[in-house]
Specification:
- The chain is an alpha/beta fold.
- The chain folds into two domains: 199 residues, Medium-chain alcohol dehydrogenases, catalytic domain (Quinone Oxidoreductase, Chain A, domain 1), CATH 3.90.180; 143 residues, 3-Layer(aba) Sandwich (Rossmann fold).
- The chain is 23% helix and 24% strand.
- The strands form four sheets. The chain has a six-stranded mixed sheet with strand order 8-7-2-1-4-9, with no helix packed on it. It has a six-stranded parallel sheet with strand order 14-13-12-15-16-17, with helices on both faces. The chain has a five-stranded antiparallel sheet with strand order 10-3-5-6-11.
- The longest helix is centred in the middle third of the chain and has 13 residues.
- The mean pLDDT is 96.
- The structure holds adenosine-5-diphosphoribose and zinc ion (2 copies).
- One zinc ion binds next to loops.
Length: 375
């Protein structure tokens, strides 16, 4: 590409301090070192987690930072010892890596690779980053930082995908879609003919519905306090939509009556701690399974009355849908291309990277499910 081995100067959306708008800055992206990959980002966007972090005071220790962890692009160059991708490959960014060697990676039941420790510091290279701006080291959100024209990340945080894949669609598999869809098919293991209730109809909740439908659920009840979300929920597979504030009885009782003792599977996807008890209480008392999806990254306590557990309900959590990312995200991309599910309905807006602040406002207003940002 003519840029290999050289520093690339390009644009990125940089957060200099929590609560401030993103600044579109010129950054310098150094060439990748061993086991690293430099990627030209072609499509990216915000997920709810970015938005929450950006407004959190304690996040200042990671600033300046390039936000974003849902992204797809093309490999510009690779460092030494990189064997799984090469220049020109279409790739998806993995916000949880898969090193293939740690205890987690070797255990089929888990997906939180031990190498995620880098992500907690928001640095993509061992204790540093290849990106600078105005003489300062720039952090990369969750060791990715996709709101940039170019980025350098670890080889274990990137997966080669089908070369025909439309990047402006499949980037959403990188977090929101995989999180919701996997919560249904991997974590809950929704069964054919079952009943499901999904609390919260943002991009993740809608992806849970897509997963429930793909798994053959007979009834999918969509719950939200914003009725504007109902039309989209129906279009992806909800069979009934309800705003708990319109009911005279608590939503738990409503669902227990409606679903013959409660839902077989419930999903908390609002991001609120209180809704966990509500979702658990809406499960069938004997065999109901409730999956927490929306609380990742929140350090709050959850209060649940122990009575809810006395007859056999199960409470589980799901992180990034339980997927082994490097191995399975390319398969999700292929499944999308084989029309096993539709991502198009999740992407409601298109803007450029320079309009990142408009995309934040759209997310905050609740009007937008996902806004794809193109360079
Ligand atoms: N009851 C029902 N629905 C609620 C409630 C509630 N008490 N509170 C909020 N909601 C709805 C909102 O109206 C919104 O439609 O939950 C939905 C949340 O959607 P988004 O904010 O778009 O979030 P999403 O991207 O789907 O992610 C869901 O997972 O990754 C985390 O941080 C993310 O907490 C967020 C959650
Ligand atoms: Zn690992
Ligand atoms: Zn995310």
């Amino acid at each position: 590409m003519g840029t290999q081995g050289k520093v690339i100067r390009c644009k990125a959306a940089v957060l200099w301090k929590p609560g401030a708008p993103l600044a579109i800055e010129e950054i310098e992206v150094a060439p990748p070192k061993a086991k690293e990959v430099r990627i030209k980002i072609v499509a990216t966007g915000f997920c709810g987690t970015d938005i929450k972090s950006m407004d959190t005071k304690g996040f200042s220790q990671f600033c300046p930072i390039i936000m974003g962890h849902e992204g797809a692009g093309i490999v510009e160059s690779v460092g030494e010892e990189v064997s799984t991708v090469r220049t020109g490959d279409k790739v998806i960014i993995l916000c949880i890596p898969q090193c293939g060697k740690c205890d987690t990676c070797l255990n089929s039941k888990n997906n939180i690779c031990a190498e995620i420790r880098q992500s907690k510091r928001h640095l993509a290279s061992e204790d540093t980053s290849r990106i600078t701006c105005k003489g300062k080291l720039i952090h990369q959100y969750i060791a990715t930082g996709t709101l940039s024209e170019y980025t350098v990340i670890q080889e274990i945080s990137v997966a080669k995908i089908d070369q025909g894949a439309p990047l402006e669609k499949v980037f959403v598999i990188g977090c929101g879609f995989a999180t919701g869809y996997g919560a249904a098919v991997n974590t809950a293991k929704v069964t054919p003919g079952s009943t499901c209730a999904v609390f919260g109809l943002g991009g993740v909740g809608l992806s849970v519905i897509i997963g429930c439908k793909a798994a053959g659920a007979a009834k999918i009840i969509a719950v939200d306090i914003n009725k504007d979300k109902f039309a989209k929920a129906r279009s992806v597979g909800a069979t009934y939509c309800v705003d708990p504030r319109d009911l005279e009885t608590p939503i738990e009782k409503f669902l227990i009556d409606m679903l013959n003792g409660g839902a077989d599977f419930c999903f908390e996807v609002t991001g609120n701690t209180e809704t966990v008890a509500t979702a658990l209480g809406s499960c069938h008392k004997d065999h109901g399974v409730c999956v927490i999806v929306g609380l990742v990254g929140s350090w709050s306590n959850i209060t649940i009355n122990s009575q809810l557990f006395l007859s056999g309900r199960i409470l589980k959590a799901s992180v990034l849908g339980g997927w082994k990312t490097k191995e399975e995200f390319p398969k999700l991309v292929s499944d999308y291309m084989a029309k096993k599910f539709n991502l198009d309905l999740l992407i409601t807006h298109t803007l450029t990277l320079s309009e990142a602040n408009e995309a934040v406002q759209l997310m905050k207003s609740g009007q937008c499910i996902r806004c794809v940002l193109l360079p």
